[in-house]
Write a structure and sequence with these properties.
Elements: E1 2-5, H1 35-46, E2 50-58, E3 64-67, E4 73-74, H2 80-92, E5 101-104, E6 125-128, H3 129-138, H4 142-152, H5 155-164, H6 176-184, H7 197-203, H8 207-219, E7 224-225, H9 227-238, H10 245-256, E8 274-280, E9 284-285, E10 288-299, E11 305-315, H11 319-342
Antiparallel strand pairs: 1-3, 2-3, 2-11, 4-7, 5-6, 8-10, 9-10, 10-11
Helix pairs in contact: 1-11, 2-4, 2-5, 3-4
């Protein structure tokens, strides 16, 4: 069943530009977290064949509705959010500078999606910490993310920031190439970063071994997070509770510039709505897909924001059906907003 909880917020929120705005409770709006949204999420979840988690938080009121909201699902590239949080936290503390030049080499490469690799020649490539952050969040570049994790001091440094900020229901991930190798039943080798080497090596692993590894990952994900934990974290980010004003605006701006997942949550938005989000996509085996996700902040035309997480731990349903489910969730949030504006205060869960 769907779960819901009503809480009253005490702080202002970030407007559509990512800058702290006036307290949202002073604006003429109503929570989207209603019985109607609860029922819509129930219907979407019950109609989908797969392990599914959903959560929606009204950032203004902190009310949450969820389906499997406390269950841990694989994050995949959604975990890049917490790496970015740790980097910007370090920047806020003066331990790092976004202008800091960084020389990367072919030895820094990772696996799967890493578009930055095209810029790294035999002599390497010089970029900045800020640019790496953009590559990691806006383009979901695995090599950029791995480099950022190493610059921080490893996954334990990311976990420390998560713990310090009391982000419950969120785990730090190993570096991308480490995690994906374990899932595939491989020991990582640097040559796997190039061409089809990783895919070729993975195809040589006994299919039964691969399935055991993949199922173990889905059931006990090293990089796991709960839908509720994610929307709580995104809500706090939007309210300016996790980072400085400048870093908060930068973070949300990078999410807004994301190039991935145009047919997921984004496809269900109405006119005047915007999204700042992060997708995640895991490995497949035969027709089994794992870790297919989209999480983000949906902002209504009046500036009200809603943190949304939809996480598919595993499914055998085709890509168009998964994307349609995510778009339908976004449409449900938009519908809840429209209904709340039409009859404010009548249907909120209190």
């Amino acid at each position: 069943m769907a779960e819901y909880k009503w809480m009253i917020g005490r702080r202002g929120v970030l407007g559509a530009t990512g800058i702290l705005a006036a307290p949202a409770w002073a604006q003429p709006s109503s929570s989207v977290v209603t019985h109607a949204l609860n029922e819509r999420i129930d219907a979407l979840a019950r109609g989908f064949d797969g392990k599914l988690g959903i959560a929606v938080e009204d950032v203004r009121t902190q009310a949450v509705v969820a389906w499997n909201g406390r269950r841990y699902f694989p994050q995949q590239s959604v975990s890049k959010l917490w790496v970015a949080l740790a980097v910007l936290d370090r920047v806020d503390r003066g331990g790092l500078s976004l202008d800091q030049p960084i020389r990367i080499t072919r030895g820094d490469m990772s696996v799967f999606n890493q578009p930055i690799q095209k810029l790294v020649g035999e002599d390497g490539y010089t970029t900045s910490l800020g640019d790496l952050l953009s590559w990691a969040i806006s383009r979901s570049d695995n090599a950029a993310n791995d480099i950022l994790i190493r610059r921080l001091g490893g996954p334990a440094a990311v976990a420390a920031v998560i713990a310090e900020r009391r982000l419950r229901g969120v785990r730090a991930s190993p570096e991308e190439h480490v995690l994906e190798s374990r899932i595939a039943g491989l020991e990582w080798r640097p040559e796997y970063s190039f061409g089809q080497a990783f895919w070729t090596a993975r195809d040589q692993v006994d299919p039964a071994v691969r399935m055991r590894k993949l199922q173990r990952y889905v059931d006990h994900p090293e990089d796991g997070a709960t839908p509720k934990g994610i929307v709580r974290g995104l809500g706090r980010l939007q309210r300016g509770e996790l980072l400085s004003r400048e870093s908060t605006a930068r973070f949300i701006g990078l999410m807004r510039a994301a190039e991935t997942g145009p047919l997921r949550l984004k496809a269900g938005l109405g006119p005047g709505w915007t999204i700042a989000h992060k997708t995640g996509t895991g490995q497949d085996l035969n027709d089994l897909t794992t870790g297919y996700n989209d999480v983000g902040l949906l902002t209504a035309p009046n500036g009200d924001a809603y943190a949304v997480a939809i996480m598919i731990g595993e499914t055998r349903r085709p890509v168009p059906e998964r994307q349609a489910l995510m778009a339908a969730l976004a449409r449900a949030v938009v519908a809840g907003y429209d209904e709340g504006r039409a009859s404010p205060g009548d249907t909120a869960l209190r």
